[in-house]
Write a structure and sequence with these properties.
Length: 499
């Protein structure tokens, strides 16, 4: 029997049997998913959420450091520029890590890429700890740059790694682990930066670096992490090693492993050599996958989630909460974001990507639009403040059901292995660039436009709804090679008909 005739889809009965086997074989896969998520994705979110509460203490320290070391007292404007640099250098590092993610993932492997992330997280934590002892603002900036690079590399590599480890039935569930980790990390960072813990004038540097405990604990399990079988089989040409890894992951079931090996062999026949970012960008057949991945990852940031969290404290204050209680309420909104995220693995397992993405983008756009008008007229009626809080919470709910998790892993379901790393890196770059744009422009636009600053985010949601409706193919339960054919004709493709 030749390769083509042996690559047959299983019958419904055998498919159900395979699914049941997967349910019983998942212990190693679960351990790997949890330790890599807590060891890399959670620190990404942590570094995003930790800087807000102790910001004033850090600014004062920067001013005192410049006075002591250089005899210069910074003006308020100079201090604002310095603080903006400290915050934004993290995003610049994230862009660089995303862009370098393709080369690192394809040349070192998925597992070693995550090991690089862990080493960089530890190095950055050392810079945060010792910057206070050395009284060096430069060390703080370098630490933020390094942790940003590690974060960008993580978001480019971790979803790809987990999806390549997972069997077809569990790819959607494992694909959202990175999103959950980042979301949870933001909440953990907010908690540890509270004044009651590390958010004080004396302890803020410990707040910045405390994630390193989690990194060290989780990376104890790194020797047992397997390399991606797809990377071994299709990129590194180590087919025996790929089979060995699959036997570990699938409970030594030779029939199930043989099925996956035949899938990869078929993909090997269809694939070309591993592609660079430059060659991927210049390939017309990959235009639509690149647009979809970059639009979803960039749109995830440009849909206003960070801006909503930025603005939510003032909204809660307008409802009559004190400044302290408003910060706690903001933490509660973050917890709602995390609680919703915990349901997404189940959601991704049973619900198709297209409808949940459309519902998420539509709901997010609607409640952002309502929020714009309610905030603008908040002083006209007492109930408006509570309407604002409701809009914030509903926006967070709709965002996290689809627009939050799906962009992290959709590239792995749309793209073949040969160009997966390159396109995932471009998507991660779009995400970090969108984050940078929002972080730099939102405070400025808010001062000029007031509540109307949310309208560009509404426009992003509308554009995403149109793009998803016409061009995003359904990927749940399908092989990447099958999906890639549906969008290989650029904007002349009609994946909606197949869905």
């Amino acid at each position: 029997m030749d390769q083509k005739t042996s690559f047959l889809p299983p019958s419904p009965q055998s498919e159900q049997s395979r699914f049941n086997e997967v349910e019983k074989m998942g212990f190693l896969l679960l351990i790997v998913a949890l330790t890599t998520t807590f060891g890399t994705a959670v620190p990404v979110g942590y570094t995003i959420g930790v800087v807000n509460a102790p910001a004033e203490y850090m600014r004062n320290w920067c001013n005192a450091s410049f006075l002591e070391r250089y005899g210069v007292t910074l003006t308020e404007n100079s201090l604002d520029i310095l603080w903006a640099s400290i915050v934004s250098v993290f995003l610049i590092g994230g862009c660089a890590g995303s862009l370098g993610g393709a080369w690192i993932a394809d040349n070192l492997g998925r597992k070693k890429s995550l090991l690089v992330c862990g080493v960089l997280f530890v190095i950055a934590a050392m810079f945060f700890i010792f910057c206070r002892m050395a009284n060096s603002v430069e060390m703080l900036i370098i630490g933020r740059l390094i942790v940003g690079f590690a974060s960008g590399l993580t978001t480019a590599t971790l979803p790809m790694y987990l999806l390549e480890l997972a069997p077809l039935a569990l790819r959607g569930a494992l694909g959202v682990f990175c999103s959950i980790g980042v979301t949870g990390g933001v909440v953990v960072g907010q908690v540890f930066s509270l004044q009651e813990i590390f958010g004080t004038d004396e302890l803020w540097h410990w707040a910045l670096s405390f994630y390193v405990v989690l990194v060290i604990v989780c990376f104890v399990a790194a020797p047992w992490w397997p390399e991606s079988p797809k990377y071994l089989y299709l990129t590194a040409n180590r087919k025996d090693d790929a089979k060995t890894v699959l036997l570990r992951l699938r409970g030594n079931d030779p029939n199930f492993v043989q099925y996956e090996l035949e899938e990869m062999n078929q993909e090997l026949v269809e694939k070309s050599d591993t592609r660079s970012v430059k060659s991927v960008i210049s390939d017309p057949a990959l235009l639509l996958p690149i647009v979809l991945v970059c639009a979803l990852q960039g749109g995830q940031q440009l849909s206003g989630v960070n801006a909503v969290f930025y603005y939510s404290v003032s909204i809660f204050e307008s409802a009559g909460l004190s400044s302290t209680n408003a910060k706690w309420a903001n933490l509660g909104a973050g917890c709602l974001n995390l609680a919703t995220a915990f349901f997404t693995p189940l959601l991704m397992k049973y619900v198709n990507r297209r409808p949940i993405s459309l519902i998420s983008c539509t709901g997010s756009g609607i409640f952002l639009f309502i929020l714009t008008f309610v905030v603008n007229y908040i002083n006209y009626a007492s109930w408006m403040a509570y309407a604002c809080i409701t809009c914030v919470l509903l926006y967070i709910f709709f965002f996290q059901t689809g627009l939050g998790p799906i962009p992290f892993f959709i590239g792995s379901e749309l793209c073949n292995v040969s160009h997966r790393a390159a396109i995932m890196s471009l998507g991660s770059l779009a995400s970090w660039s969108g984050n940078f744009i929002v972080g730099i422009s939102f405070p400025i636009l808010q001062s000029f436009w007031g509540a109307w600053v949310f309208l560009p985010f509404v426009s992003t949601c509308i554009i995403l709804v149109i793009l998803i409706f016409f061009y995003l193919p359904e990927t749940r339960g399908k092989q990447a090679s099958e999906v890639a054919l549906l969008i290989s004709k650029g904007f002349r493709s009609k994946p909606r008909e197949s869905a």
